Amino acid sequence: MKIYLHKELWNVFILVLLSVAFCVCITVVGVICDERQVYLREDLSRFCRTLPLGESWISLSPVKCFAACISRFPETCRSMVYNQVTHTCTPGGTAFGTLQNVQTSIPKTNLNEKLFYAEFANPACNTSNGFALYDVCGTTACLYLSTSKVKYEIAVASCAEMNSNLIIANTLARLSLFFHVSLSYMNKDTLCWLSDNVMEGYFVWGNGETISDEIKDYIWHNGQPDNYNNDENCVATRHEVDPKPYGLNDVSCHIQLHFICES
Ligand SMILES: [Ca+2]
Ligand SMILES: [Ca+2]
């Protein structure tokens, strides 16, 4: 794995780090023998957060901090929080944006702490048919945002016709990406590929997965799912009526809503 600092970062702090990055890059390539290229990007807005992976330690720079994080947690390290004053390095998982009820995330309120997250190369995206790349805190997806409302069944079929699928938000990172695009780019209640059509109360994503432990405490809007009128087996965002806190709502599969496809 090669670690680079993101080219868009140009402030003085980052320029100093760039000279350090090269040395650490060589070290990490030698240890890990992995040709993936990873950009290490600072969250300048303090919008992104991450879940801590373990105890903190002292590292002399953010790049060395991330290299040690990758070494200790090769499967799960995707970010770190670095304190510029104390040089404390706290390892983190995949970064994500705003989600309700996430209490254990880092960074904390200390202004000396900065979050850096790994950003992998963008996935292929054919933008000639209305798809485009969207990114939240290093998680990138090729998405089509609907301009009209349809029933769930039609949304699933429409995405399939475009060689894609209705969006699956099965991780914290993908859930925050879905919320972010639904809220910031569409500002509409938006369907995802999740339903309890087969067994009431047993929600299954379009890829066959159930709701994971990682997201089960964050996915639902307050009081949802409620299977209102005994007729709610499909799932959508709920910010048109109630903008905060963000969370999903079970809705009738017969009502027409906007949707997002992912290729
Ligand atoms: Ca239901
Ligand atoms: Ca509901």
From TrEMBL:
<protein>
    <submittedName>
        <fullName>C-type lectin domain family 4 member e</fullName>
    </submittedName>
</protein>
<feature type="domain" description="C-type lectin">
    <location>
        <begin position="142"/>
        <end position="262"/>
    </location>
</feature>
<dbReference type="InterPro" id="IPR050111">
    <property type="entry name" value="C-type_lectin/snaclec_domain"/>
</dbReference>
<dbReference type="InterPro" id="IPR018378">
    <property type="entry name" value="C-type_lectin_CS"/>
</dbReference>
<keyword id="KW-0472">Membrane</keyword>
<feature type="transmembrane region" description="Helical">
    <location>
        <begin position="12"/>
        <end position="32"/>
    </location>
</feature>
<keyword id="KW-0812">Transmembrane</keyword>
<dbReference type="Pfam" id="PF00059">
    <property type="entry name" value="Lectin_C"/>
</dbReference>
<dbReference type="InterPro" id="IPR001304">
    <property type="entry name" value="C-type_lectin-like"/>
</dbReference>
<keyword id="KW-1133">Transmembrane helix</keyword>
<dbReference type="InterPro" id="IPR016186">
    <property type="entry name" value="C-type_lectin-like/link_sf"/>
</dbReference>
<keyword id="KW-1015">Disulfide bond</keyword>
<dbReference type="InterPro" id="IPR016187">
    <property type="entry name" value="CTDL_fold"/>
</dbReference>
